[in-house]
Amino acid sequence: MRRYLRIVVLCLACGFCSLLYAFSQLAVSLEEGAGGGGGKPQAAAASWLAGGGRGGAGGVGSVGPAAHPGPSDRCKDFSLCYWNPYWMLPSDVCGMNCFWEAAFRYSLNVQPIQRMHLAVVACGERLEETVTMLKSAIIFSIRPLQFHIFAEDQLHDSFKGILILKEVDSLLYVDTDILFLRPVDDIWSLLKKFNSTQIAAMAPEHEEPRIGWYNRFARHPYYGKTGVNSGVMLMNMTRMRRKYFKNDMTTVRLRWGDILMPLLKKYKLNITWGDQDLLNIIFFHNPESLFVFPCQWNYRPDHCIYGSNCQEAEEEGIFILHGNRGVYHDDKQPAFRAIYEALRNCSFKDDNIRSLLKPLELELQKTVHTYCGKIYKIFIKQLTKSIQDRYDRPPKER
Questions:
Q1: Are 233 and 173 in contact (CB under 8 A)?
Q2: Which of 110, 205, 282, 322 could covalently link to 300 via disulfide, CB atoms 3.0 to 4.6 Å apart?
């Protein structure tokens, strides 16, 4: 009987040792596998587990792993725990706790999928445009989207609406007359290109100074040579809330919430384009805070009505279409209207989305009598790729 009891105890001990070894190998292999995609996601996971603070937007200015023991007295230095197998840790680091941390970290898959935040201000007559814009964002995007829709008309109320989002780290604001021709994920990834001083990203108002509005008519300061357009604005809200802005009203730097209304009062007789003019004034005094992205991320009639002047769109196609001047609803720029009508009438059914390309191209061919229509292929170049990529993705990611 004792012999059998010893055999059982020995088997249990061997089984427990095998289980420990399997867990440790799993943790090490998963850490090595995760390392192939770059260090930032791992650092973010470590920071989350250790109770570290929030980082910047989408990988911008992210904080490293916290190095302080929690209330449960886990590890002396979590970064050592994170990057090393538990048997290779220094003697003053709690190796067994680190082993269990690694096991729980991967088994529970604690790294959440980050949502992308999209904001728009929609007035009553803009309802149809807003719905079409949201549809274009949903069709092609991969990661989850969260929409923030504001219906206020007043300029300051719109800005206050954005500032209410105190828990939102990053935000993409767009006008209602925007159409996404590629996933929102792609413009969202530009957050990673921000340097340490940049808080927002916009496209130039014009590429050609000879037809620029700001450099010819503006009666207030504006960014760069031709100003910037606020129809597509990517923001690191965390940095925006913390920053103190230089201004021409006082020698004291002011925060975002404190600078807008005084600027509006000072320049109210000189402002033509509302919030866009205020943003140009702010970034004129704080140019280091703005990241400028190419014109294909905010392609407007001005880029083609007098001849093509957006070289990036000619090479890669249009990424985001901006139908300002009401061109979705009149016959002045039929190429823009053709894209809008195609997306407005399509449904989320796979076959309908795939089948919109051929009829759309035929409609665009009817617009070659206009300057924009002559280069109609740039309107569908990226759209064709986005639709193909959508069907190449696994069904659960569509």
A1: yes
A2: 322
Q: How far apart are CA 135 and CA 353, in angstroms?
A: 11
pLDDT at 63 over 60: no
Of the candidates 351, 316, 322, the residue with the CA atom closest to the CA atom of residue 339: 322
- Quote the pTM value: 0.69
Tell me what pLDDT residue 19 has: 62
Q: With bands split at pLDDT 50, 70 and 90, how would you rate the model's confidence at 98?
A: low
Q: How many CB atoms lie within 10 A of CB 172?
A: 23
Burial grade of 324 (CB within 10 A; 0-12, 13-18, 19 or more): middle
- The one-character DSSP state at 307 is B
pLDDT for 285-320, tens place per residue? 999 999 999 999 999 999 999 899 999 999 999 999
Query: C-alpha angle 153/157/159, rounded to 5°?
Result: 115
Place of tokens 């007359």: 177
- Tell the burial category of 332 from Cβ atoms under 10 Å away from its Cβ (0-12, 13-18, 19+): middle
